[in-house]
Each structure stands twice: as structure tokens, then as C-alpha cells.
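Field reference: sequence -> structure
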Amino acid sequence: MHCFLGIIVKMFRKLEIFVFLICLLGLNRTSFAQTKVTKDSLIKLEIKAEENISVLKNRYHEREDQLSYLMEEKKRYLSNRDQVLKINKQLASLSSENTNTKAYIDEYEQLLSRLRCLDYKSKKNQIKEIQEIQKLFKTLENNNLEIDQSKISPFPKILEEAKEPFQTEYNCVLEKNREDNLLSTKYETFFSYTDPKIESFFIDQDFVNCQVRIIKAQKIIYLELKLKFGSARAAKIYGSLNPNNPIKLMFQNDDFIYLRPNNVVEGKIEEKTGHTIYKIQIPLDREKQKKIRNSELDKIVFLFDTGIESFDLFHFDLIKNMLECIKKN
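Structure field:
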């Protein structure tokens, strides 16, 4: 009986060894097969990555050509603010797309570099590197690359460096009047305009010109407009500006504020030139200042005794800059 049991135990031991050898052989075959498949897939991955880089580079260069074309087109429309703003949006969109495309090209090229350096790594490090490469490739293929959008400029460098006629760099210079205890910015051109019908009579200057500045008297902030018409008859043609008919300052986001002059403003004739000047002072409360700081100007509408006059504003950040200037001092 004991002999019979011993034979059975020996048989089981042999069976265990046999099963172990089969499993070991199977694992080795599987490992070999996986290594072979991985190697083949890496070759295919390298080819695919090179193809994707080629496609992305073509798109990148096409957009570069479009950017160059739009920059040239923009030069033709410098006097047309709406058209310039429209072109700027197109430039910003193309530039942003190209920045994203460049980020993908860089990642693909790094992926290729890592692939080609695999032979110089140990087997253990190769396995880990292959897994990371495959993960990165999948991310790029699915367009899931995380790009820090805060570091992406909305405009190409050439556009950032070029100031628009309505985005001139503001030089913060203040003037002090000790007698009246006033602090003010210097006058700057706010807008100018000449109706096409009378352009031939105003070759060297515009018919309408408006200068603007900010005044601080104690704690009160005033917006001062010096509206000049190139004619001595303007006062009779337009009449006066009344606080009951406030000036409307419109923003590009379709919002607006009403500006009420301190008093009735009559046009006065300038002796040297014969031009008519309306000097308008408007107190700006905190709410109005806040809106000006947070929005870009679009138009200004004057309601004269005889009718409405509306003017496009090219320097849409000028008042905001003046407010910041006087605030710092």
C-alpha cells in the first residue's frame, strides 16, 4: 500500500514538472512573439509619425503664406478701422492655429528622436520607453496634446511689433496747474473726420477734429473734449450741446454710457484760424471709469440742437490709458 502511494506521489511530481516546463515554454514563446510584434509596430509607428510631420508642416507653411498675404492686405485698409479689425481677427486665428501646429510638430519630432535612441538603452529601460512613446503617439493622433494657451500669443510677432494707427503707444505725461489745483494729461487726438463730399476743400486737415484729455480736480475725474470744426459757421449749423441731451459713448461689445456735460456748451470761434471749438467737460464717476477701463471704444454720438453727429473712434484705448496714467500719479 505504501509502495503504491509512493508511486502515485512520484507521478504527480513528474506531472508538475512537465506542466511547469510547458508553461515556461509557452511564456517564452509569448514573450518572443510580443517582442516581434512590438518591433514591427514601432517601425510602422515611425513611418506614421514621419507622415504626420510632413502633413503638419505643409499646413503650417500654407498658413504662413496666408499670414503674409493678410499683412499686405491690411496695409491697403489702414484708414478703414472695421476692415483692419476684421483682418486682425483672421491673423489672430491663423497665428493661434500655427502655434498649436508647431507644438504638435515638435512633439512628433521628439517622439522620433526617442524611437531612434531605443537601441542605446537597456532592455528594462526599452520596455518603459516604448510604453511612453506609444502613449504619446496615441495622444498626438487623437489631438489631445495639452498646450498652455496662456503662453500662446494671439498675434504673430510681426503683428505684435507693429502698432495700429488706432493702437498708438501712449506716453504718460501729466501737466500741473497749481493755481487751480488741477492735474491733467496732455491733449491727444481722439478722432478726426471729413465727409467725402467736402474732402476737396480740406486737403491738409480734417473738417472735424477732436482732442481729449483727463483732468483730476481734487478727487473728481473729468473727461474733457475739445471738438473743433474747420468752419466759422459750424456754431450756427450745429447749435449747442445740452446736458439734457447727453453724449453717447459706445463700446465694441454693444454696451454704452451717457456722458453729461457740466453745462450747456456753445461753439466759440477761434480768432487765429476761424475754426469753431466746443470745449466740453464731463465728470466721470467710478462706474463710468470702470466701463471705459474694461471695454474698447467704438463710437461717440453727439446730440446737437440741430441733430445727431456720430463718429468712429480709432484710438479705442486712449481714454483708458489716460485714466491709468492719472491714477498712477
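Note: Residues 17-37, 157-161 have pLDDT under 50 and may be disordered.
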